[in-house]
Amino acid sequence: MLDEAFRDKGDGVYIQSRQNADLFNVAHFRAKTKTTRILMRELLFADDGALTINIKKTEVLYQPNSTRTREEDIMVDGNKLNSILEFTYLGSTTSSNGCIDDDIQRRMAKASASFGRLCQILWNNHHVSIQVKGKIYRAIVLSTLL
Questions:
Q1: What is the pTM of this model?
Q2: 91, part of any domain
Q3: Which residues span the domain enclosing 14?
Q4: Residue 21 maps to a domain
Q5: Superkingdom, according to UniProt (predicted)?
Q6: Interhelix angle for 130-137 vs 101-118, to 10°?
Q7: Are strands 79-80 and 59-61 parallel, antiparallel or unpaired?
Q8: 93 three-class SS
């Protein structure tokens, strides 16, 4: 039925996922086997399988382009979703204007703060080798920056 409804439409967006016991093994994400590919339009009926969204927690980040400069209202069950200017996910901030300057400034400030805290504890300690200091720096400061 969905194939008939979307016959004249573009292919759409696919989500590729893996669901097995090795979910947290990062090397398995590169594998081309044992993965499931779902077309986004198939998720139209996801609520039939108990997949629902929390409207109070769902937000919209509008990013205008050259043809659409006006923000669209996104409605779910008659409720307008909250519109935001910035969205932070896993430490990365995406803004509505597409600029990453604020995200870079935040990351640099966090890395600087991490380094400052380590100076008091680690860098002034002469009992810790340079190799260990380098490993801790890469693990804490650089991971915060990147």
A1: 0.49
A2: no
A3: 1-52
A4: yes
A5: Eukaryota
A6: 150
A7: unpaired
A8: strand
- What is d(CA 112, CA 82) in angstroms, rounded to the nearest whole number? 33
Residue 3 is classified by DSSP as: H
Q: Assess whether 48 and 65 both reside in one domain.
A: no
Is residue 92 one of the residues assigned to a domain?
no
Distance, in Å, from the CA atom of 145 to the CA atom of 28, rounded to the nearest integer, reads: 26
What's the Cα-to-Cα distance from 128 to each of 133, 135, 140, 144, rounded to whole Å?
Answer: 7, 11, 16, 22
What's the number of domains the chain is made of?
A: 3
Contact 57, 82 (CB under 8 A): no
**Same domain, yes or no, for 6 and 35?**
yes
Pair 124, 135 in one domain: yes
Kindly state whether residue 72 falls inside one of the protein's structural domains: yes
